[in-house]
Every structure is written in structure tokens, then in C-alpha cells.
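Predict both folds.
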Amino acid sequence: MKKLILLFAAVASLNFTVKADEGMWIPMLIGKNYDEMQRLGLRLSKDDIYNINHSSLKDAILQFGGGCTAEMISDKGLLLTNHHCGYDAIANLSSVERNLLDNGFWARSMDEELPAKGVTALFLQRMEDVTAEVLEAVGDATGEEYNKKVEAIAKKIEERSNNKGKLTANVKSYFNGNQFLLLIYKRYTDVRLVGTPPKSLGKFGGDTDNWMWPRHTADFSMFRIYADKDNQPAGYSADNVPYRPKKYLPVSSRGVREGDYAMIMGYPGRTNRYEVSYGVDLAVRVVNPSIVDCRDLRLKIMKQHMDKDKKVYLQLTSSYSRIANYWKYYIGQTEQLQRLDVVNKKRTAEEKFMDWQHDNNKNTGLMGEFEKAYTGYEPYAKHAVYYSEAFRAPALTRMAASLKPLYDAYERHHGRLAADTLKKYITQAQNGYRAAIKDYERATDKELFAEMTRLYYINVPRNQHPAIYSSILNGASGSSKAPYVAYANTVFSSTFLTDSNRFNAFCKAPSYSKLKDDAAMRYTVSFVANYSKNYQPKVEAFANKKGDLAREYVKQLMQMNRGKKMYPDANSTMRVTYGKVLSYEPLDGVEYNYFTTLDGLVAKYKPNDDEFDAPKELLELHKKKNYGRWADADGSLHTCFITNNDITGGNSGSPVINANGELIGTAFDGNWEAMSGDIAFDKKYKRTIVCDIRFVLFLVDKLGHADNLIREMNIR
């Protein structure tokens, strides 16, 4: 196996020293960090963390649902993840009559566990370095040709490695395309809901407390993985049995103290710490504010309709939560990038990089090429955001977009298509339609349609607008709401797409004329055609150019910092991060403790409030101080704590593990003062917010009365 050359994220840390609490490290190379981990207190061996020949911590960690992390906590397939990671599954299992989301749910036997359709559990089997094979196949290709060659060789490697479809194989790029790893997974699809606290606790604090410390949120849920009798993946069946993991985590009930060792393993989504100053500047000035503006209006419209009708609330609450999470994220990221002066710090680092280039006869024009690429892209950056965040916000436009390939095929062939071709496009449309209609609620969607169309008109440069606006406005003022409302009424009253029965009838007897005459299709075709013809090529050309430049930039950073321990950007693959439990000072004269208690939750309590309500049973337990064995030595019940681990989105649900390999909590958020972290790590402020495992156990025990689950775990 070719040895990975780890690269130093110079631009990420804004200096040239990697700190112990910074870095998302590749598990199979964690030996390079082992001395430092031991110095911080780790008592496990390197093989205890990652080994492909016998069980290790990697076998207890899984990617949950495609976008989160979970950990095995029993030998019977029981897993722990975040409440917000299980949120969609819990909402889908809820109804107005049986509202599991609001009321909570605890299965007191396996027979009571509920199938969570669509939820997957992905276990890493091994990692292999395939860099040499990929780079040989790619050669000197650049731009779109480079992407096609990488895709082709990755597909070849994956197909020979998936054991005839029994395994999932992924080739992933690291260090901006300078390294490639093959990851082999086993995927389980029979996943069942076991337990969840009520939403008032699972999302305690709501949007107000999101990304904030101090925090008191019980952000956890429990599921169980099922397998066939041979412990292999199988679709849902009553004959399936609980999965037997190679490894599961023992649970510590002893609590944590400041300075304790803390290690997190999981699947962080995306970081961009190699981003150059021009990219950060564009994000702060254009991209982030545009995303926030679109999402702010979307959320206000959705909440208005959700508050009126519990059925609408259950239908849209999962989408609302996802939109809200990153609405606040982009607000916070922009604020912290500005506060920490990241653009200028990156420029300083880039000047040092250019000095090194000059001294070593490298291409000193590289940063100038970055500047040229970003300058050329900026006039279209806002359009790209509004196309994604405004035009595609209503479910109707996504439903119509699913038929656009069929429409285009009809156009190319003058309204006549062969049966097999027609079937292909109809199947594609049906898949897209099913995905979009889950978010369709007529009143909400109609208002979104009108307001997003208006917002697009106001904020995207006029010379970039699609032609349909002449029909929408018909001479009226572009900022007035009235023409957009009238147009939305016309579209929604005449399209066949808002009625699934009419859509299904169309799929059985497709008609080119019906597509051309449909108001929603005319609207969508105008937007999509305008973007795909005039602006998507510019966006893609910029992305390809940026990719080429970034690949060379990181390659030179490797040469500049040869011999130093370095880590790659997060890319939704398993990583290890280590640090310690640690308080911090967010402002002059202000110090935040490293833990919170149930006393603080009760102090925030507001009866019947959307964000700060709490179950009466919990308030009674608090009043009586009935915490059982889950109380801390100080007599209080600790709810959350913070560490200085380096994590990001995708780490939600990740286990926080002590020096002995025991579970001490589940990570669920980052703090406001360090929301620049996906672009620039800040050692002083960066914190991970963790739900204390004793709070989890207390709620399972005292509120859920699920003694069966307590007995199932190995609690120390």
C-alpha cells in the first residue's frame, strides 16, 4: 500500500503548527498521532481504535441515515444517535392521532419497535490507498476531462471491490484530489425506532439555542439494526433478528471533569479549510447573505402554515428543521469570519506561500489565477444561489423539474418518442416527483411559489432573468406582491402536477402537448432553460477551474510543509478527532463553564412555548431531585458538556469517548463563537457541544421507564 503523504492545512489554521485538538484524522493512519493522544491521556492501543483483522472502535461507529453518525451501545444492535438525526424517521412514524414526535416513544420490548423506512446503517470494513492507480488513469487531464477520468476509474475500482453488490465501495478524494482512498462498507437497511424523548426535550431551545452554549438539549434518539439469521444485511422482515456488532461501546456513568481526555469518531460532512482568501471574501459578501435571505423568508412562510395545522406541521417539520439549521449556520459563519478577520489572515498566509514559491522556482502566478477565476465568477454567484434556494424552494417547481428531461426529449424529437425511451424518462420523472411531493402542502407551496418568484426578481440582476417574468408581471411593478400572488393562483389552479392522480394518469398516457400547455411546466422550463443555457456553463467552468487550481495549490502546500503531520478536509468519511473537556471565555469578563445542569433547563422553561417547554414529569423529577444513580457527585444532574474536539456537520450523533474507550456522551452541535470552523479553525473558541450520557440514561430510565434498555447496555 502506497504510504499517504499527509498535507498541512496551512490556510486552515492560519499558521504552520497543528494543535492536538485540531484535525479530523484518517483512522487507518491514526498511529501518526498516537504519542500525542497518549500525552493527553488515552489508555487504548492504536489497534483498539482501528484494525481490519480484529474488532476495534471503528466497528462500533456507523454512518446513520446518510448524513449523521451513530454508535453501537449493546450486543443486540442497539444504537444511539442524535434526536435531530432521527427526526425525519420519527416524524414519518407520527400522526396527529399518535404523535411520537411531540410525545416521545419508548419500546419496552423488541416487538414494539417500529420500522424506520429509508434509514440506513453503514459500517466501514476497511480502507485502502488507491492513489497511484487513480492518478495514473487521470494523467495530465484538467477541467471536465479530469472529472470524467476520475469518475471512470473510481467506478472501475468500486465495481471490482463490491463483492458482486454485497458490499458498498466508494472511492473518495482527499487533499483536493492529491490522494484517493477506497472505502468498503456493509449497508444494513432494516432499522427500527426504539426510543426518543419528546420534541420539547430533543429540540429544547429550538432555533434560539441552536449553535449556542450554554445548552440543555436532550438531543438523542435510539434505533436498532436488524439482520438475517447469518447477521448479514436484509430488507425488513419479521424473521430478521437483532444485529450482532463486532464491537459496541461500554457506557460510563462516572461523568467528566475539566481536562479529561475526549475522543470523537464519526463521519464529518464537509470542510473547506484550503479555501483561498478570494473564496472567503465572496462567501462573506455575496453567497452567505443570499442563502440567509432566501431561507429567512422560506422559514417564515412555512412556520406560519405549520402553526395553523398540526397535520401540516408534521408533514413539513423535518424540512423546516433542515432549512433552519443552515439558515442560522450561514448567519453565524459570516459573523465569525468577519470577527476573526479570516480574509486578511488568509491573505497574509498566501503572501508567505508566494514567497516560498518564489524561493523554490514554483508557479508564482497561481494566486493570480485564483483571483481571476473568482472575479470572473462573481457576477453569476448570486444567480446560482437564488436558482437553488429560491426557484427550487417550492415543491411544485421540483415536481415540474422532474419532467424537464422528458420535455427536452420531446423537443428534440418533434413530439415523438420510442416506447423504451419514453419509459426511461417517465421512470425518471416518477422518482423525482415522489421525492418532491413529500414536501407539497398546497397553501404553503403556493405562498412559497409567489414569494420566491418575487425574491428572485428583486435580487438577481435583471439582465439574467428568465423570459417568463414578462408574463408574470405583464407591466406591473416588480416589487409589488400582487402580480406574483395572482400568477401563483393561476398556475396552481391549472397545473396537473399538484394532483398525484392526474400526474399518474399523465405517466400512463404521456402527451407532449399537455406538457407544453401546463402553466407550471411553462414556468419551470423558462427558469431551467435560462439557467442551464446561460449560467450553468459558467458555474461549471468556474468549478472546474477552481478544482484544477486547488489541486495544484494543495500539492505545493505539501511540498512546502514536507514531513509535518497534516490532515485532509472532511469529506463524509470516518475520522478521529481528539482533545479534552474544556471551558472557554467567549468575551472579555465572561467565562462559560464546561457543563450545564437540569437546573439550567428548568430556569429556561416556558410553559407551552415552541422552544422552551418541558414535560411536567421532568419538572416533577427535578423538584424532587429524583435523579437516581445518574446524578453527578455534586448532586446535580448534568445535561451537556463541551470539549475542544474538531468536528463539523455529519458528526452529529458521534460518540464522545473517554480515555478508556467508554461512551461519555453524544456530540450534537458546535458553538456560535467558532462557526467559522469549516473554513478556518480557531483554537481559542472552537468547542463541541455534547449531550452527557448520564442525561440520556436518566431520561430513558426515569422519564421513559424503559428499564429493558438500561439492562441491555454495559453501564459502568
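Second protein follows, with its predicted C-alpha cells after the sequence.
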Amino acid sequence: MVQSCGLLTGKNNPVALKSIAVTLSTNDFVAGVSATLNYENEEKVPLEAFFVFPMDEDSAVYSFEALVDGKKIVAELQDKNKAHCMYEDALSQGYRAYLLEEDKCSRDVFRCNVGNLDTGSKVALTLKYVQELPLEADGALRYVLPAILNPRYRLSDRCVDTCLDMKTPIVPLEDLPYTLSMVATISSHHGIERVQSNCSLSSTEYFGDDRTSAQVSLADGHKFDRDVELLIYYSKVHSPSVSVEMGMPEMEPDSLMGAPSAMVSFYPNIPDTEILTCGEFVFLMDCSNSMKNPMNNQDRSQLRIDAAKETLILLLKSLPLGCYFNIYTFGSSYETFFPDSVKYTQESLEVAVERVKLMLADHGGTEILTPLRSIYKKRPIPGHPLQLFVFTDGEIFETFTVIKEVKFNSKKHRCFSFGIGQGVSTSLIKSIARVSGGTSEFITGKDRLQTKALKSLKRSLQSVVEDVSLSWDLPPELSVNRISPKQTVLFSGQRLIIYVQLMGTMPSTETSGVVCLKYTFHGKNFEEKVTFSLQPKPDANFTIHRLAAKCLIQTKDFGFKETPAVNVHEVKTISIESGVMSSFTAFIAINQDLNKPVQGPLLHRDIPRLTLLGGSPTPALNSVHLSGSLRKMGYLIPSLSLSSSQGFKERDILQLVNLQNANGSWDMNEDLSTVLGIRFEDMQASHPTEVVEPSVWATILTVLWLYANGRDFYWVWDLLERKAVAWLQHHPASTLLELARMGNKFLKTSVNPAVFTM
């Protein structure tokens, strides 16, 4: 019998988990990771240790092994129910046993059980996984090692057996008893420009004349105080590529793991297009209590709710005339700003902005399913396709139920999701975007929420690349079986990765194949071709095969409780054949080679987790360049970690955002002159009253100021500038050009007047 003796919470009790060591190996756009958990029993009785840890939703875990007293024990992937029975049987017989499984309600959380850890024993558990590396807006590939697991909100009793419904202690950073180390090796034929991180690194070493490889590691002494993030910049990130991998020789030649697989990567450099004015934009904003937490554990970190409010106002100001919009706030219950989506006007914008300023993180838990269903039940507005923007810290339990609901309604809308703060559920955020054809973003610290939210808004407003297809030119003895689901549209700045099987006989001599990406953009046909070798290099980890299996599992596996019965058997089969864990399988390892069985009873030890609670909110900024009237109006003042001059400029730009009218114009008043850094009397005196009305002159001056002073923050104001220029177009071009020259002279700037022509 396993005896539960409480939780391990105090400094005086020893902790079974001592350290975590991570080895990262990236190759072009994919990463292989090996994480080793080092346990030691310093107590006087045998232990069963239990550790819960996060991992990216797209990770394909394919290996789990234990090193005990110099002996390696490789785990087997089994049906989850069978693995649990084997684990309990092993413990009852005194054998050492190890169990690794996904959480039943979230695909990005794993639990590790170490049973019958005898007194004085040391064991190293190693799990291995592979994943695609997502792209950032600036072309960087991003690897994140989630280091924080927030307590998730429990909605009902349907997930009582989840590993998240646990009593594992939560401790502050200084009491966290285990450490983290990481070494990363990066390689790419594209050439590596630089590597950046949100954590302290050792110096980066580059190798090769064209810098095709690099190595970097975390600085000594790093703890789990934040997610570890690496940004990798390649020289030729837009170059298409194809990687081919031979199958496992022991498998059937036409099976998933036996046939050769290929990974096709296209990243078309699609230009920005004109902004569409139609659409229904619904913003679903998390106002649960957890949104009071800071973005991360760093000092002066902004609160999640403040970052979300600041961003929502910017998005509202950036919407085009002619659209419809609404805002839902949710927690344990939900509220709507308007009974139905309303036309975007100056009046509706002002009402919405005032309500956003009053939003608080006081709605209790995080129940997103009910407001989602309410949104989907609304009648669609003809000619205005629904674009849903979800902002949440993702601390929910019913992840798979929410994903299933979004997928069921995927033909009605696109969902753009944003995970706010560290510890957010990657399973929720990535999946609701993927199943609806939208995009997902994660905001944890220095990367600004506004940047990523505006990028998604631009995508929702732009024409998409359509009729996406692949064609192949291969030797006659080869054919292609596509594994990835078909993707018929593509956003600007979005990468396309497709997995296929190569069926038939691979050539024995050096031979090439060609794949062609074809698509339509603005009525014109485009294509990109890439030639690749059909003599691939061996990969002992079978990275491409495992990623292809993960892709296939994701299309059929909706969680332990939500997957249709007809899919369960197929998911298990794919999982066990590929070695990639699913909701229905678990890794089990049993060491029976003991001199004598471990004698119980066992103490139960839950490894503590780091808390995000108690972080200090950002103090108020006192030296902000704002007039008293702006402060009284309650405009949000952003918390910035920029240089002084950069901080002031961005704050000024965000104030201009607040002052802009829905139609794109600015009014001539003291608040505007204060932000522009000029006396209001001088602005009035410079106004050519015989030519234009005051708002036209104010708008021209503001656009000139933005180009002269805000180029580093073009991503903040480009949508607003487009609205402003469109509003000015009712004046003749010659008049606008002359006014631009007059404005340049008054402001002492040298902006090209052509910016006012469309």
C-alpha cells in the first residue's frame, strides 16, 4: 500500500528532484530536445515522487528512459490504462517503476511518477521530444522551454483525475529546490545571423566560414524564474527547403514509420496588401482573477490585465470604418459591451474605449466555453465575416472541450488567439487558432502584446493567399502520400510546413526531386520551386517521421474525454507505431533487476512548483510627457522597459492612438499639441484657415510627426496612418502636397509629401 504522508512544502524537508538538464539541438526549422530529471532519495524510507511540468503543445515526446545505478531502463509506450495497471502492480511487488503521461485535460502538461525510490538511491530520467520551431514577425525562429506551470482553473468535476487537479505545493522562487541548465546546438544551411534570449547566456560560439552552426548555454545559476526563450535569426529564412528521411528498416516498407518521409517548408515573402473594410471583429477578453498576476517574475513586470486593456484600445482605434465590432469579457460569467455587434463609428468607439478603461480582473475563474457558444449562436452579418480575437492567460481545465467547440464552428470564422503571461496553456492557444485557420501568439515579457496583436489584426484585414497546392516531379517509381491536412489559404508572414510519405522504391543512385508550391494572390498565379536530394542523410531520432506522426495525431486526438470513439483505436495505433505519446498512451518502465524488492510503505512526495503570485506590479510613472488634461481623461500609460528616449516616443505614439477619431482624423486641441511637443497657440497660428479646416491641418501635422519621430514604432501606427491618409483623400492631391510642405516647414521636418498619396 502507498502511504500518503502529506506534501513537501518546507525548507526542512529534502526534495527528491535535484536538477533538470536540457540539451537542445536545432536543425533548420525543427528542434530535438533531451531533458534529464535527476532524482535522489535523501530520506530514511522509500519514496514515490510525483512531478508535473509543462511542455509546448506541438512537442512530440518519443522516448523515456531511466538510468539507475549505471543500468539503463528504456520505457515502453503502452495503452494508458494498461500502463497504469503495470505501474501499480510493480509498486505492490516492490519493483522500481517509472510512468510518464500527458494530462487528461491538456496536451501541454505532463506528469512523471517515480515509484519505489529506495533510500540513498539516485536515478536520472530522460525524456526526448521533437518540435517545429514557430516563426516570429521579424523572421526569428522561437524555441521556448516552459519553466512555469500555473495552477489551472477547475470548471467542473469532469477532470477530477487530471494531474492538474493536484495538491502539489507552490513556492516562491527563493524556495525552489531544483535548478535548470541548458545547452543549445544550432545548425542550418541558411546561415545563422544571431541568437538572442530573455535569459542570461554564456557567450555564443559560431562555427564555419558561413556560420552554419552555433552553440550557446544558459549562464550558471539559472532557476525556474521564467520561461527560457531563444530567438534564432537565419540569413535566408525565406528560402524554401525539403528534407527527406529514410524510414525504420525494421518496419513495414509502406507503413507510417517504414516508408521514407519528407518535410516541405515554404515561407513566401508575401507583400502587405490594402486593408479590407468589411468584417465583424469580436474581442473575447479574459477578466478572471488570474489576470491580476504580472506578465512574468521580473521586477516591474506589467500586470496581464493592464497589458490586455492597453492593447485592446489600440486594436479598437486601428479598426477600419465600415466594419462591425463587439467586446466580451469573461471569467466565471461573461458580459458583452453591446447586445449585438455594432457599426464602427466615433460614438460606438468612444463608448467601447471608456468601458475598456474600467475593466478589472475580478470575474473569478476562467470559463471561456459559455461566451464562445454565445458568440457562435449570433446571426452572421452579411458581407462581414467573423474574426474572433481571444485574449487569455489560458488557465482553464476544459481545454479539449473548448478546442472541439471552435473546430465545430470553424467554417463560420477565424480565431486569432493570444496567450498572456508565463505558464499559459500552449495546448489551448495554439489549437483554437489552428483548427479555425487563424494564428496564435504568446506574450510573456519583453515582447510587446501590441506588436503581436496588431500583426494578427493586419492579417485579418488583408487578402489571403488562396488556392495553395503542391505538385511533385519525382522518378516514376515514387509517389506521394500527404500526411498533413490540406491548407488552402495562407497569411502574409505565415510559414507552410507539410509532411508527406514517399511511396515506392527509392533510387539507389544520386537523384533529385522537385516540388512546386502554387498559389493565387490578388487574381495572379504564383509558384515557387525547390529541388531536393532523394539520398537523405540518416537521422537516428527519425525527427521528420515523429513530427509527421504528431501532426497526424493532432488531427484525430481531441483529448482523453473528447476524442470520438471511432478515432481512439487509430490514435493508439499511430502513437504506438511511431513511439509518439498521445492522450491514450503512456510510457512505462519497470526495473525488476534488483537484489531484493524495495520494502514499503512508501512516502508520497509531490515536487513543488514555482508561483507567479506575489509579483510586484509596475509602479506608476511620474515623469510622463502628458498634459494634466490627458491624465484626467484616464488614458492608459504603458509600462516600458525601453531606453528613456525610446520610452517617451512610444508613450507619445500611444497617446496619439488614444486621441485619433474613428474616421482617422485628429482634432486640433491642446492635448494633441502637447504630444507633438509644440505650443497650442503656435499650432493655431500656423493653421492655413483659408485652405482647410482645423482637423485637416491637425491630421497632416500628426502624420508628419509620426514619420519624423516614430519610425522605430511603425508597427504601432501604420494602420492608423492609413486611416488618416484615406480620410484626407477627399481633398485634391495638389492641396495635400502643398499642406505637407507647409507642415514640414512648421515642424522643421523633412518627410516626403508623397506619404499623403495612396
